[in-house]
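Q: I'm writing up a methods section and want to include an example of the input and output format. Could you take the sequence below and give the corresponding predicted structure tokens, formatted cleanly so I can copy it straight into the document?
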Amino acid sequence: MKKTLFVVMLLSLPFLLFSLTLRRTTLEKLQRNTDLVIYGSVQSTRADWDEKHEFIWTEAEVEINEVLKGSWTQNRITISQLGGHVGDTGLEVPGVELLAPGDEVILFVRRFRGRYRIESMELGKFTIYTDKAGGEKKIRTIMPAEDIFGIDLAKKSSRAPELTQVLFKDFINRIRTISE
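A: Here is the clean output for your methods example:
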């Protein structure tokens, strides 16, 4: 079984390497390429093989608190991410953190081949957390702040942070401004 998965992954490597390239983008471009932008919390996850038994997909059930772009009438949506573990076999995609129960997130989502997926992989996922020092909700993302707010912050600092942290209310307001 493990040998078969290794051979399948080896044959699929060129496709995966090409398709997993993250290109720098802005919040405007990200929003333009999506069907939905949702604010919600992950209720559950389940990993399983695809129909051809080639790849493992993790399905995350997300309870929607607010739809920020698009039209969605249900209170939940299932988001598919490549990767996960089934039994003793795992598929990990470099640079992608799978959604987990309890995660509070803003997701830029696009329907592709019958599945709702996060646009631009990790760039379309914004994790929400509460700052322990100030008690305010903030967004954690790998997207640079200048790509979120459309300004050049690089001149203020010679070293860019690995993770950008933005106030939740400012981020939501930015998304709403772009949507108008």
